[in-house]
Amino acid sequence: MKVLKRIFDLYLHGSMHVAMSVLALVLMTNHMFNLPFNFHMAGFAYCGTMFSYNFMKYESWYRFKRPISTNLKIITALSAVAFVAAGVFFLMLKRQTQITGIIFFGLTALYTVPVFPKRPNLRNLSGIKVYIVALCWAGVTTLMPIVEVGNEIVTDVILKFCQRFLLVLILILIFEIIDLSEDDPMLRTIPQIIGVKMTKLLNLILLLPFYFLEFFKSTVDNMQLMVNVVLVVATALFTIYATPNRSKYYTLFWVESIPIFWLGLVVLVSYL
């Protein structure tokens, strides 16, 4: 059991699970716009996410020369492989897709790498974290697959981009509730500013535009509406039961599984 738990922890802390969530959202975009599966796009989304998240989480350990555990050494090695793989997949994408990817990679770099003399990075600018992360997720999982196949950015794509942005924002707020007791007060996260109860209320309110944006599409899919009801209820429950005392597994596994759960529901319904 200890070996299995160590492997599971490596899977979570090595950002392989969050990368699965990003991949699930890419596949959701394929489903929603009838796009063919693109191995290079999928590989870039997965490997790029894995490397980016691990870089954001662990680069300071090396920069400040903190003690490096065996697990962190393994994660570093896997991250290096992911970086090389992401680079190879990136070169296989079309030029327009590469430019789109560079824009969102740039945002990720600004979020992580020190660029301002008085503030280590954009991550430390009060309240900006959630919007950068949500924007990057929405861009990589919605715009890049569309650009790769040469489709135009029509109204339906913009609606899906906004819907994806809202979903990621909602999930991040659940993370911020769980991390409230550990986050630096200087971060000025939303729960730090308005409190846990108001953050939960905000999340529940944000679920309304997330759901009703579906009705503004050029063609409304009734099966998708049903799937989204289940997703909204599940996300609402995760929000309601989120507290700063919850285990990290609550977010690192269960909350980050919501996009995978969404894709699973869509696949299941498509076979009914």
TrEMBL record:
Record keywords, A-Z: Membrane, Transmembrane, Transmembrane helix
Transmembrane helix listed as a keyword: yes
Positions of transmembrane segments: 7-29, 35-53, 74-93, 99-116, 128-146, 158-178, 190-213, 225-242, 249-271
Zinc in keyword set: no
Domain of life: Bacteria
Protein name: Prenyltransferase
